[in-house]
Task: inverse folding
């Protein structure tokens, strides 16, 4: 398994790789994870390392990434624990600069280290399959070279689409064509491709019609029941309507649409100012804080630093409403973020400011909350007002999802599916 994001690195991208590695031994697979050292990402969660038991072999390598450049050129923008990440515009400029020379991404400098480590491990004990997960997309190029070199079947797992990712902005048409050639090569040469949403699968098959439909399989993100164990007593406070957004904000996930809706609610119902609180737990940018202050919402909206994963799960259970936001465009409609499954398991209604697509479909299918377009301030304000009215009448009701509705999203069930695909792949 080549997974750049792996504990003690933190963030949403870590969970999928960690849980698969943790539960694959029960499905007859002995995972060896090739990853990086903790200093190669700005966000960490040391508590997740406790889930790496002896059955998981972990090889940590050095890496040369864009983070090194960012820390040298703009240390105040690179992010410090508990502090806003600085200027989203500056981060965007540095991303744009790196996109000219680092293809497919700023993590391409990991390639020689990962190749060497994986090849040496194979020489010590022969593997049966290769699994790569993106982002970063450069992990798939490493897998491609390993599969050619070692003659092993290779699974390319896309946590996010490649050229349809929200942050995908190639500087020139030539760069775009280069990315698309690489994307096509990965989809073509991998023995199996896994994606996290039906919409992503459909998009790949539409753009690359030569691909056999059975080659692309959906293995969604999910929740781990053990992350909720012992938290059954957690309940929302009664003094304020608590709305929580779990996870980092980024330039492609702006907070302003929610703030504008919140401002409208408070203007229409002044009493809501004292009885409503929105919390963003995770990394943010100074822009987010400044916009909140400019709209006079600093006493209603709180930005809090990232916390260990299990603590964030507890905060979900202490909240009345869970907030989901995605950019309102076609690419945003392909995204089915990992947090949505933990939101579902928390049995708290979801307020989703998202485009029509994967997240909207799932929330509607399970009747797990309310959705509106990201930029539809009027509808978002109406939904906020509805939740506040329910709070004043005793609290927004918990979702009525049964165990059977959620069982397919539990991490062990998802790992069982992945394990079965791997067994089929190698002919066992």
Result:
């Amino acid at each position: 398994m080549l997974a750049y994001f792996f504990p003690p690195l933190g963030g949403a991208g870590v969970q999928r790789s960690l849980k698969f590695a943790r539960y694959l031994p029960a499905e007859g697979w002995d995972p060896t994870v090739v990853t990086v050292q903790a200093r190669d990402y700005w966000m960490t969660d040391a508590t997740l390392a406790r889930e790496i038991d002896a059955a998981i072999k972990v090889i940590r390598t050095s890496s040369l990434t864009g983070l090194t450049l960012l820390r040298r050129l703009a240390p105040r923008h690179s992010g410090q624990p508990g502090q806003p990440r600085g200027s989203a515009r500056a981060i965007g400029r540095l991303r744009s600069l790196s996109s000219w020379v680092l293809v497919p991404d700023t993590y391409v400098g990991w390639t020689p280290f990962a190749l060497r480590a994986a090849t040496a491990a194979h020489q010590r004990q022969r593997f049966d399959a290769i699994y790569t997960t993106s982002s970063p997309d450069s992990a798939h190029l490493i897998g491609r070279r390993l599969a050619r070199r070692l003659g092993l079947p290779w699974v390319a797992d896309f946590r996010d689409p490649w050229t349809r990712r929200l942050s995908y902005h190639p500087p020139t048409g030539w760069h775009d064509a280069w990315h698309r050639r690489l994307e096509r090569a990965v989809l073509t040469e991998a023995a199996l491709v896994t994606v996290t949403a039906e919409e992503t699968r459909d998009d790949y098959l539409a753009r690359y019609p030569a691909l056999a439909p059975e080659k692309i399989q959906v293995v969604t993100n999910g929740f781990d029941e053990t992350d909720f164990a012992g938290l059954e007593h957690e309940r929302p406070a009664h003094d304020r309507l608590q709305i929580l957004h779990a996870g980092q904000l980024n330039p492609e996930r702006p907070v302003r649409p929610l703030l504008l809706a919140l401002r409208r609610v408070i203007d229409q119902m002044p009493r809501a100012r004292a009885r409503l609180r929105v919390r963003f737990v995770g990394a943010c940018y100074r822009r987010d804080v400044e916009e909140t202050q400019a709209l006079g919402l600093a006493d209603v909206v709180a930005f809090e630093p990232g916390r260990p994963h299990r603590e964030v799960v507890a905060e979900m259970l202490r909240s009345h409403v869970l907030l989901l936001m995605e950019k309102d465009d076609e690419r945003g409609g392909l995204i089915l973020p990992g947090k949505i499954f933990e939101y579902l398991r928390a049995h708290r209604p979801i307020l989703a400011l998202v485009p029509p697509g994967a997240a909207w479909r799932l929330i509607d299918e399970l009747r797990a909350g309310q959705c509106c377009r990201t930029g539809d301030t009027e509808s978002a304000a109406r939904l906020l007002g509805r939740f506040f009215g329910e709070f004043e009448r005793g609290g927004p009701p918990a979702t009525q999802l049964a165990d059977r509705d959620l069982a397919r999203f539990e991490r062990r069930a998802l790992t069982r599916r992945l394990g079965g695909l791997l067994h089929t792949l190698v002919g066992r």
Confidence is low (pLDDT under 50) at residues 77-82. The chain has two domains: 12-222+410-426, 226-403.
